From TrEMBL:
<dbReference type="Pfam" id="PF13361">
    <property type="entry name" value="UvrD_C"/>
</dbReference>
<feature type="binding site">
    <location>
        <begin position="63"/>
        <end position="70"/>
    </location>
    <ligand>
        <name>ATP</name>
    </ligand>
</feature>
<dbReference type="InterPro" id="IPR000212">
    <property type="entry name" value="DNA_helicase_UvrD/REP"/>
</dbReference>
<keyword id="KW-0347">Helicase</keyword>
<dbReference type="InterPro" id="IPR013986">
    <property type="entry name" value="DExx_box_DNA_helicase_dom_sf"/>
</dbReference>
<dbReference type="Pfam" id="PF00580">
    <property type="entry name" value="UvrD-helicase"/>
</dbReference>
<dbReference type="GO" id="GO:0000725">
    <property type="term" value="P:recombinational repair"/>
</dbReference>
<dbReference type="GO" id="GO:0005524">
    <property type="term" value="F:ATP binding"/>
</dbReference>
<feature type="domain" description="UvrD-like helicase ATP-binding">
    <location>
        <begin position="42"/>
        <end position="329"/>
    </location>
</feature>
<dbReference type="InterPro" id="IPR014017">
    <property type="entry name" value="DNA_helicase_UvrD-like_C"/>
</dbReference>
<keyword id="KW-0238">DNA-binding</keyword>
<dbReference type="InterPro" id="IPR027417">
    <property type="entry name" value="P-loop_NTPase"/>
</dbReference>
<keyword id="KW-0067">ATP-binding</keyword>
<keyword id="KW-0547">Nucleotide-binding</keyword>
<dbReference type="GO" id="GO:0043138">
    <property type="term" value="F:3'-5' DNA helicase activity"/>
</dbReference>
<comment type="similarity">
    <text>Belongs to the helicase family. UvrD subfamily.</text>
</comment>
<dbReference type="GO" id="GO:0033202">
    <property type="term" value="C:DNA helicase complex"/>
</dbReference>
């Protein structure tokens, strides 16, 4: 079944070896290869050069995939520093992920030779920098905590135990989503409660709450305030609040940031936009780059309008268009262009291929998912036998579950691979435990204490922890302080509580000035944690802890300045799974399309391209469908040399028949080679399925006619008041006078306006 891959590759790609270098191809624009004054930046095309040298004012680059946006951004930074003499510390460059920020830092260090790379960061990371300097403005210490999902879950556990809630009331995942929606949409003023309300009042609000949602929400705010903690959502909100309340602090940052640049501007949300506008408000140098066709975070509040209307929002905007794609073969470009042009809500723009080398763009239709996975494994093997490194291949999918058959096939075929999903590196127990030890030493906060007090076993079980909790509450102190103050109590006889206190005290007094990697190594050794892992015989966990030590060591060496423990802890709290991507290992990468944003790979396998997977079966609107198509576009434009689109017949895990994705049929079929073509009958069934789902979506398109607080009349339940809207379910949540509990009523249902 691999004949197509192997024969085509044998003939067209492998003949030239694996050193396929985009830059070795002809550049399509004769104006290319222009040099900057002083030859700082060779081989940029005219538009890139303009983007690099147009340093003053408001500049917008609208560019296609693979046209060198990120490259232009990097070169611009270097130009500002090397040619114009701007200090790196006066430049803010915002990227979408930590990984992109790290890459940019590396590239800029290579270009400028300077260790000071200024503020190259994600939005969240930059906000942490602001807060580390100015959190006093909201009466938070510099040592505030940044919470990740596992920390939030730990807080939820405390709330659930305290208020007798169970997962049946709400799972932690749902509770986290709910908190996020409350913060972003339903109660955007929440930060006033968090920042301005005294802890005791917040606690009262929590204790008086009766509705499950309120209990969880106020319990979460109370816990956050108690630990001086912020979650990701709070970071930008709090910084904006500080800027609003303290013009002196705002002006300090505005003056400091002489140049502000933002990558991936198509995926910016309202708060991020506000922050960037404020920051650029003094020097008025704001440079943004984005591709409207790659907006894939609308579901998280991204709004492409900020890019499209940039020229209306700011004065004298200079717009630069970049359409020459340096990344992909003409075949991949043909696939990408013909796919994305089916979106109706877009500015028409075609990518132009600069490369002249050819490569395969294959559609493989398999009988079953297992066959599909096997075909991919055989394809990978064939490419590898032909000289392509494993790490130059990636398998992309819409949703994590799609990776399972491919993983199994790779295991069977003994293909080295790494999955960027499942339990993220920084979410693993041993990593969280190790970091909790570091945090306990730095902050003695309750979250870290609860996590590791009894890990390894110190005989500090539930009864003793409850004792500490009561004491801490009665004396308004932390759990660790409670332990220090009651250490001689009878209850701690026959425990190792004294050793724990001694450990924390010892490290608390000695961590400053020591490298963090060294502190961690000593801490997990002296706490007995490493020994416990050894006794457990868990080599994988030990390896992961070793990996953590190594990553801290590398962070210290790459940072350019002295890394304090607090600095490291806030940095690590913002890391996600995608950041653990280890490029050095020769393994095929498996990841979601969202995780692949901004990356490129010589060979891309896009699997599970079935209707219901991509586009997702959760797609309910035309806009949603267009976002799914953009997602497919992002996936195909990651490929440099080879693109393999695969799907399988059979049945989905819900039992419905599977059809090839509509996006496969959107593609100009002349741009594809078929390894195994679906039959005409299969294709006509697929078309019927698209039509049925379009009809269903049109039915759902009914909009909400009522708002929260409105009175309505239902033909069976009578009068009710709308409590809120569930946009996802397209339903009102209504409290009917005749019913004790609320009901979700579809937007489509016939409701009349009722009397207030
Ligand atoms: N002027 C140029 N000449 C040759 N190669 C270039 C040029 N500009 C960029 N490239 C190469 O093209 C590829 C894509 O560049 P880059 O990643 O900067 O694009 P991008 O627009 O940010 O992509 P995307 O939005 O799809 O993530 C990279 O391999 C880069 O090295």
């Amino acid at each position: 079944m691999t004949y197509l891959i192997s024969s085509r590759l044998g003939g067209e790609l492998l003949g030239r070896g694996s050193g396929l270098d985009a830059e070795a191809d002809d550049a399509c624009d004769p104006r290319a290869r222009t040099s900057l004054p002083g030859d700082a930046v060779p081989t940029l095309n005219a538009e890139q050069l303009e983007a690099v040298t147009a340093t003053e004012g408001y500049v917008r680059v609208i560019a296609g995939a693979g046209t060198g946006k990120t490259r232009a951004l990097t070169e611009r930074f270097a130009y500002l520093v090397n040619d114009l003499g701007i200090m790196p510390g006066n430049i803010l460059c915002v990227t979408f992920t930590n990984k992109a920020a790290n890459e940019m830092r590396h590239r800029i260090r290579a270009l400028t030779g300077d260790n000071d790379t200024g503020f190259i960061n994600t939005f969240h990371g930059f906000c942490v920098s602001v807060l580390q300097e100015d959190s006093h403005a909201v009466q938070y210490p510099k040592s505030f905590l940044v919470l990740d999902n596992a920390d939030i879950d730990q807080m939820l556990q405390i709330i659930y135990d305290d208020r007798g809630l169970t997962l049946r009331d709400m799972t932690f995942g749902r509770a986290r989503d709910m908190i996020e929606i409350m913060k972003l949409k339903e109660r955007p003023d929440y930060y006033r409660d968090l920042l301005a309300m005294p802890l005791a009042s917040l606690r009262e609000k929590y204790e008086q709450a009766t509705d499950v949602r309120d209990i969880i929400f106020y319990g979460h705010l109370y816990q956050e305030k108690k630990c001086f903690a912020f979650d990701y959502n709070d970071l930008i909100v709090v910084v904006l609040y500080i800027f609003g309340q303290h013009p002196d602090i705002r002006l300090k940052w505005q003056k400091r940031l002489e140049y502000v640049m933002v990558d991936e501007f198509q995926d910016i949300d309202k708060l991020q936009y506000e922050l960037m506008s404020v920051l650029a408000g003094y020097h008025k140098n704001l440079f943004v780059v984005g591709d409207p066709d790659q907006t894939i975070y609308t579901w998280r509040g991204a709004d492409v309008r900020f890019l499209l209307d940039f020229d209306k929002a700011f004065p004298d905007v200079r717009t630069i268009m970049m359409l020459e794609n340096y990344r992909s073969t003409p075949e991949v470009i043909a696939v990408a262009n013909s796919l994305i042009e089916k979106n109706r809500q877009r500015i028409p723009k075609d990518l132009r291929a600069c490369r002249t080398q050819h490569g395969p763009t294959v559609w493989h239709h398999a009988k079953t998912s297992d066959d599909e996975a096997k075909w991919i494994a055989e394809g990978v093997r064939a490419l590898h036998d032909g000289g392509i490194r494993y790490r130059d291949m990636v398998v992309l999918y819409r949703a994590h579950y799609a990776s399972r058959p491919v993983e199994e096939a790779f295991l069977k075929a003994e293909i080295p691979h790494a999955v960027y999903s499942g339990v993220p590196f920084y979410g693993r127990k041993e990593i969280k435990d190790s970091l909790a030890y570091l945090r306990l030493v730095a902050y003695q906060d309750d979250l870290s204490f609860t996590r590791v007090a009894n890990v390894p076993k110190r005989n500090l079980g539930q009864r003793r922890m409850a004792f500490l909790k009561d004491y801490a509450e009665a004396h308004a102190c932390s759990l660790f302080q409670a332990l220090e103050q009651t250490i001689e109590d009878e209850i701690f006889k026959r425990t190792k509580a004294k050793q724990l206190v001694a450990l924390v005290r010892k490290f608390r007094g000695s961590f400053e000035g020591r490298p963090v990697s060294e502190v961690l190594a000593a801490l997990i050794n002296e706490s007995g944690y490493e020994h416990a892992l050894r006794t457990e015989g868990s080599q994988e966990r030990l390896d992961n802890v070793a990996e953590l030590k190594q990553s801290i060591y590398e962070f210290e060496n790459s940072c350019g300045e002295e890394v304090t423990l607090e600095h490291y802890l806030s940095h690590v709290a913002l890391l996600t799974n995608a950041d653990a991507l280890d490029e050095a290992q020769d393994k095929v990468r498996l990841m979601t399309i969202h995780a692949a944003k901004g990356l490129e790979f010589p060979h891309v396998f896009l699997c599970s391209l079935s209707e219901g997977v991509l586009p997702s079966r959760k797609t309910k609107t035309l806009e949603g469908m267009e976002e799914e198509r953009r997602l497919a576009f992002v996936a195909v434009t990651r490929a440099r040399d080879g693109l393999y689109l695969t799907e399988a017949a059979g049945f989905s895990h819900e039992g419905s028949p599977r059809h090839p994705s509509r996006f496969l049929l959107d593609i100009d079929q002349r741009a594809l080679q078929f390894s195994n073509k679906p039959s005409d009958e299969e294709l006509s069934c697929a078309r019927a399925a698209y039509a049925a789902s379009d009809k269903w979506m049109a039915g759902l398109a009914a909009d909400a006619r009522f708002s929260p607080g409105d009175c309505v009349l239902h033909k069976a339940f009578g009068r009710g008041v709308i409590e809120r809207l569930d946009e996802e379910k397209r339903a009102y949540i209504v409290h009917f006078d005749s019913l004790d509990t609320p009901r979700a009523i579809s937007f489509r249902a016939k409701l009349d306006a009722g009397d207030a």
